[in-house]
Amino acid sequence: MILEKQANGSIKFGDATTDDILNEVEAARFLKVSRMTLLRWRKAGKLGCYRPGGFRVTYSKTNHLLPFLNDCEQNATVTFSPNEKAAALAAA
Q1: What Å distances lie between residue 77 and 2, 26, 32, 55, CA to CA?
Q2: What is the pTM of this model?
Q3: Arithmetic mean of pLDDT, 49-64
């Protein structure tokens, strides 16, 4: 993945900026699940991520988490309460 430094000082990961990037703990809080659940979803191919440097896992709200929430809602693979989904969308 190509990293680009923007004029405003943020770093761009592909088409996501650092303002959009969450680490595992932040992503788990955003989705209101455990880090282990994130790992299971990643291994099952349900949730994408970035691996800058090959080890650390990061997530983009716009490229990974919000599309995952929408996909779960459409396919009913994971159920979120209306309050949980509203809170996640408001945090975006």
Answers
A1: 32, 22, 16, 28
A2: 0.64
A3: 86
